[in-house]
Fold this sequence. Notes:
mainly alpha, 16 helices, about 65% helix, globular
Amino acid sequence: MKTTAKEIIAYMESLQNEEQRRILMGFFKTGPGEYGEGDEFLGLKVPQTREVVQAVPKDFPLSEIPTLLMSRWHEVRLCGLLILVAKFEKLATKRLENDEKAIRGRDEILTLYLQYAEQANNWDLVDLSVHKILGHWLLLPSNLGDKDYKIKLLDDLAQSPCLWKQRMSMVCSWKTSQMGDPSWCLRYAEIHLHHPHDLMHKAVGWMLREMGKRVSMDLLRDFLRQHAHEMPRTMLRYAIEKMSDEERQYWMTIPQG
């Protein structure tokens, strides 16, 4: 049982795998000029990190999490994020939705998550955490502010110069769409429509596809009727991936404006 961040880090360092480390550094584009430039890996697979998280005691203090999130090691940062996810989910059950102590706890976790958002500095770190913390929080009671406050918070992420914060503003809608609210996905898909980075093209298309699957294919088609002519090809391909061959061909032949 690892009871401090330092113990967790020491244990994870003991699992280092050089061959896997080289593979991950290539996969996550850590070379000069690439989006993950300078990121360092131990060479652990995600299930190994999840095992570490499961072994962390339930009362593991939030005050220890920043040490994990500030680690040089990618997998240790992921561990810190997944501990926050586990803590948030325990406070976000149907039974605790309106419980005042749970609301305060969720707000505290969300605040810590956003404080260290730039440490989620690769797409997997964002994608494995943001919808389960920020996305779920958007649709739950909060003492931090009302829906206008939440929109402003996401707008600030979307307008940040940090690519990973921008991705957070989009991928958090995975959860809101799962919970039946398409508004977050549609708003931030439109905001990021002309984003220059391929990673955001994929994120927007993916979230539109999920919104169509979870909420309404007609809403997805409405969005495409308005924007298919100006969507980057990758974004459009991701958005229509689950449609029939015939319908995919229809959308892909719309002239680029």
